[in-house]
Amino acid sequence: xxxxxxxxxxxxxxxxxxxxxxxxxxxxxxxxxxxxxxxxxxxxxxxxxxxxxxxxxxxxxxxxxxxxxxxxxxxxxxxxxxxxxxxxxxxxxxxxxxxxxxx
Length: 103
What we know:
Layout (H helix, E strand, L loop, with lengths): L3 E10 L4 H18 L3 E8 L6 E8 L2 H7 L3 H10 L3 E11 L7
Antiparallel strand pairs: 1-3, 1-4, 2-3
Helix pairs in contact: 1-3
């Protein structure tokens, strides 16, 4: 299997901004998977224990593909829209060792 690159981003958003955040991120995720050759997967997850906490699970062909993602119009637009919504962010960066899927 070719080596792939994964990031897991956790975003805590302002109370009352959850729906707006989801709309922005769902558009970004769909555009990323549809329009970027290097984007393999982009899932938007809602935390069970904290309604203001969301996680993004993103798999790219390489760190370079992630860098290209960060230059796309949909990414740049989402960052601008999220500037006053996200209050805290953390990122885990990793290599994909094994990927199992029923797809």
